[in-house]
Write a structure and sequence with these properties.
Shape: elongated
Largest sheet: 7 strands, parallel
CATH topology of the largest domain: Alpha/beta knot
CATH superfamily of the largest domain: SPOUT methyltransferase, trefoil knot domain
Helix content: 25-40%
CATH class of the largest domain: Alpha Beta
Length: 243
């Protein structure tokens, strides 16, 4: 069943309204018709099973058939602080990390970043759209936020219950050590470097700020792989995967 997000204000007691770009997508791309069923989500964790009642070029009205809590959200709140990668790698990182359950994605300017953001807000809006599409596809109950780029120093001093940085020069502490004692409802920050990784001075500053550096094993992962792998491992360790 096709899935869409709508603002909380779009939901009444018995019906909901769809406006904006989704109207054209529903009518012209998906070619849905009156009486077809859809899922609407209010972006706050509640899903609405609806049937399309009326359609025009600017607005769609849908009757609410049933309401139930969305079950796709993780109990843990993960924020990914991603060192700015080159090319369009950020698109892939955002898409896959949203699918895995990340709540917030923050681009970070680090010492070894080659990429520089131009038109920061324009790019953030584009990345936010990628996050929304990924959230629709994987059945999320909220749309993860993509924030504007920040400095490395600001990133490592952000408040979280647990802060983890995969670092290729770490040899002792692993992800299991870092996650020991973590609760399902805790807030977790994951720091991933750009293509060249983190400098030693950055790793030292991170440790001073309470960030736990960890090894991910014998192989060095690409920057677009490291975040996906780390988030996957965290979700598994916290029992978020049915395996």
């Amino acid at each position: 069943m096709h899935r869409f997000f709508a603002d909380k204000s779009a939901f009444g007691e018995r019906c909901a309204t769809i406006t904006g770009e989704d109207v054209a997508h529903i009518t012209k791309v998906l070619r849905l018709k009156e009486n077809d069923s859809i899922i609407l989500c209010d972006g706050e964790g509640t899903d609405y099973h609806c049937t399309i009642a009326q359609m025009d070029k600017n607005c769609i009205t849908a009757d609410i058939v049933n309401t139930y809590p969305n079950e796709a959200e993780s109990n843990a709140s993960i924020t990914l602080y991603q060192g700015l990668p080159k090319s369009d790698k950020m698109d892939l990182i955002i898409q896959k990390c949203v699918e895995l359950g990340v709540d917030t994605i923050v681009p970070v300017e680090t010492a070894r970043c080659v990429a520089k953001i131009k038109d920061d807000e324009k790019k953030r809006i584009r990345w936010q759209r990628i996050a929304e599409e990924a959230a629709k596809q994987c059945g999320r109950g909220v749309i993860p936020k993509v924030l504007g780029a920040i400095s490395f120093d600001k990133a490592i001093t952000a408040e979280h219950d647990l802060k983890i940085m995969p670092y290729e020069c770490e040899r002792q502490s692993n992800l299991s050590n870092a996650l020991a004692g973590a609760q399902n409802n805790c807030t977790i920050a994951v720091y991933i470097g750009p293509e060249g990784g983190f400098e030693q001075a950055e790793a030292d500053s991170a440790s001073d700020a309470g960030v736990k550096t960890v090894t991910l094993g014998k192989r060095i992962l690409r920057c677009e792989t490291a975040g996906i792998a780390t988030v996957s491992a965290i979700m598994y360790a916290l029992g978020e995967w049915d395996i």
